[in-house]
Design a protein that fits this description.
Cofactor: FAD
CATH topology: TIM Barrel
GO molecular function: FAD binding; methylenetetrahydrofolate reductase [NAD(P)H] activity
Keywords: FAD, Flavoprotein, Oxidoreductase
Structural class: alpha/beta
Helix content: 40-55%
Shape: globular
Number of domains: 1
CATH architecture: Alpha-Beta Barrel
InterPro entries: FAD-linked_oxidoreductase-like, Mehydrof_redctse-like
CATH class: Alpha Beta
Family: Belongs to the methylenetetrahydrofolate reductase family.
């Protein structure tokens, strides 16, 4: 299992994050993941945090990485910088539209689909381990679960190594998802994404 960390929005939070991660490490997670904002303040911190934590903690740290707001040239430059810092674990995502934007659109000279980002990363041979997102309840932009499953197969064929699912509330959704994607040839590991319920109001949301 792993812990997902969000880049802090304050300097105080940024200073405290390594300490928090160090405490969580005592629970012996297999890895940490650091998210990547849709734009602006926190996304620039992700690589710095991943770099620092993997040096401090000596366990795998996974860098979330999206197409949002980047041209292909910018994405290529970021990938090269990751390689220079020996950041080799990536969760490749198309990403969501920035807050206030109704529909997702690629950046000028950018990439439209996650599989294109995977192909770009995979062009660096086998240096990177690449994970992708799976959607047991279906993706909001897909007309049906069958179409969503076929899109997952495209991402795997582009070079993904494993899948981490979005959270789900009914275990049957996960087991049906496994059956559905296995039938169309997805053989990689599929890890369930789980969010801990810490209070009643969170459960209602």
């Amino acid at each position: 299992y792993s812990f997902e960390l969000f880049p802090p929005k304050t300097e105080k939070g940024r200073e405290k994050l390594p300490e928090t991660a160090g405490i969580l490490k005592e629970l012996e997670p297999d890895w940490f993941a650091v998210t990547y904002g849709a734009g602006g303040t926190t996304r620039e911190l992700t690589m710095d945090i991943v770099d620092e934590l993997q040096k401090r903690l000596q366990i795998p740290i996974m860098h979330h990485f999206t197409c949002v707001g980047h041209s292909k040239a910018e994405l290529e430059a970021i990938i090269k910088k990751m390689k220079e810092k020996n950041i080799c674990n990536i969760l490749a995502l198309r990403g969501d539209a920035p807050e206030g934007v109704e529909h997702w659109e690629p950046a000028p000279d950018g990439l439209e689909y996650c599989y294109q980002l995977i192909e770009l990363i995979r062009s660096h041979d086998s240096f990177f381990s690449i994970g992708v997102a799976g959607f047991p309840e279906g993706h909001i932009d897909c007309p049906d679960k069958g179409t969503d499953s076929r899109y997952l197969k495209i991402k795997i064929d582009a070079g993904s190594d494993f899948v981490i699912t979005q959270l789900f509330f009914d275990n049957n959704d996960y087991f049906e998802y496994l059956e559905r994607v296995r039938k169309i040839g997805v053989t990689v590991r599929i890890i369930p994404g789980i969010i801990p319920i810490t209070n009643y109001q969170q459960l209602l949301r």
